[in-house]
């Protein structure tokens, strides 16, 4: 899984995961894809994005959904 294109910076976009340090969040890309916007249209609307960035956004979302949080309880 290639998610090294995803950056997290608390000082940028409220700490949301972004594409390569750009001010484009993973959520923005995923939202467009979920609405049925084609990859070609997304890349035309955001010419500084690359096809691999869209793949990385999907991979990151998949990884986050599979991540399991363990709640600690007092002993």
TrEMBL record:
Superkingdom of the organism of origin: Bacteria
Pfam families per the UniProt record, alphabetical: DUF433 (PF04255)
PANTHER family per the UniProt record, alphabetical: SSL5025 PROTEIN (PTHR34849), SSR2962 PROTEIN (PTHR34849:SF3)
Name assigned to this protein: DUF433 domain-containing protein
Organism of provenance: Thiorhodococcus mannitoliphagus
């Amino acid at each position: 899984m290639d998610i090294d294109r995803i950056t997290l910076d608390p000082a940028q976009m409220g700490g949301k995961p972004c594409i390569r340090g750009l001010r484009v969040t993973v959520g923005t890309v995923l939202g467009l894809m979920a609405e049925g916007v084609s990859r070609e249209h997304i890349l035309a609307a955001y010419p500084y994005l690359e096809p691999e960035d869209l793949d990385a956004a999907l991979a990151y979302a998949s990884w986050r959904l599979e991540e399991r949080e363990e709640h600690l309880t007092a002993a």
